[in-house]
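Structure tokens please, single chain.
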Amino acid sequence: MATVELSFTALPAHVRTARLVATAVARRSGVDESLLDEVRLAVGEACSRAVESHQLHCPAEPVRLALTDRAGRFEVEVTETCATGGGDPGGSAGQPGAGTGSGTLDGAGLPAGLGIAVIESLADDVQISTTSAGTSIRMSWPAVRPSR
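Here you go.
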């Protein structure tokens, strides 16, 4: 399957749409039904973090979501396009309150980095990369292409 790409305005209401699209594409890619809730929750968390960052630092820039299945894996990449100067993988690049767990709180009053811990507990594999162009969270799950 080709990559499905979605860009959306940094509004919390659009996170629900991103979750629904990700779940539908995961199902079509052959992700086991028992993992679809994990996909939905992880994508929701990553998109919520991106929306919060964009609202603070670059509200006019869209959040980007790419969904791909290849080599028996379903991959989701959520990209914040805010160029806020880079940072640690905990998310300090454009991610409010995120960091190395030094006791800071995020926008919801939760310990910093908690969202990343949630994503890591839900996805089979998680990679976070931060550049001057923004932060990207790539998550993947096993997928077996359904026979037609």
